[in-house]
Amino acid sequence: MTTYLNHDQLFREAPAIFARTPDSAVSQRYGFVPTIQVIDALEAEGWYPVRAQQTRARQPERQSVARHLIRFRQDPQRQIQVGDSVAELVLTNSHDRSAAYQLDLGLFRLVCSNGMVTPVGDLGGIRVRHGRQVVDQILEGSVALVDQAPQVANAVERFRATQLDRDEALLFAQGALYQRYGQDWEQLSPVSVDSILAARRPEDQQRDLWHVFNRIQENLLKGGIPGRAASGRRVRTRAIRSVQEDVRLNRALWQLAEQFAANPHSLIAA
To answer: Rounded to the nearest 5°, which phi and psi values hold at 118?
Structure first.
């Protein structure tokens, strides 16, 4: 059963949703619309908040305007099924000049309670500058993104149909670590290629690209993977809490999977 977040729960998870004013440094042209106003408008259209998170600001006074993310899902009878997942909308915003409103199509994978962001071809996400028309533009964008759900479903089917041998799975994992840690991932990553390929549940041990992608995505985003720091000390990776990094890495991994589905041997791993 899906649990939707009420205002009190949203405030506990991401207080910047309820900001009353933007950061004092924004220009006079900044059209302030609190995120809760957009959430309420999406809810009126049948999209309900199911998860919220907020980037931790280094300065306490910026916590009330920091970047935040909200995931929305429809009622069960209206949900768009995409394989073993359901479609979601993913809204990100900040009131400190670091981000405009951004709306993306997402997937929530039922078997692992894990969410992802799925770029949809040339459309990508819907980016809306702060201004008086934010609510209307976000609602229009939600319709445009949902229309792209069949395109995402087709991509998932391609991933499922792409079987990977051991070497190809390792190559994909190397590409994922490159996306997470950058060009020097072999020195910077505290975890091995094999460790991020490990399945957290028996049903995810299948060798098709969809399951390999999901294992890696979950391991990198949720953390908890044992490894060693550069000093040799034993560590466990931390879950990604940054809204910006969550969305960036999700998009990068999805695009990596699309490239791999088209031609696994064209992938150049660092």
So the answer is: -120, 100
* Tokens found for residue 150: 């069949």
Average pLDDT (66-83) is: 91
Between these two residues, 198 and 112, which has the higher pLDDT value? 198
Distance from C-alpha of 210 to C-alpha of 156, rounded to nearest angstrom: 7
pLDDT at residue 269, as a whole number: 43
**Helices assigned H by DSSP within the chain:** 7-13, 35-44, 134-146, 149-161, 166-181, 185-188, 193-197, 209-222, 243-262
Is the pLDDT confidence value at 122 over 50? Answer: no
CB contact at 8 A, 146 and 105 = yes
Contact 18, 1 (CB under 8 A): no
Q: Residue 44's closest CA among 142, 145, 175?
A: 142
CA distance 218 to 210: 12
Residue 223: φ, ψ to 5°: 70, -160
User: How far apart (Å, rounded) are the C-alpha atoms in residues 159 and 178?
Assistant: 20
DSSP states of 157-195 as a string?
A: HHHHH-B--HHHHHHHHHHHHHHHH-TTHHHH-SS-HHH
Burial class, 184, CB count within 10 angstroms (exposed 0-12 / middle 13-18 / buried 19+): exposed
The predicted model scores a pTM of 0.87
Among 53-62, 113-122, 191-200, whose mean pLDDT is lowest?
A: 113-122
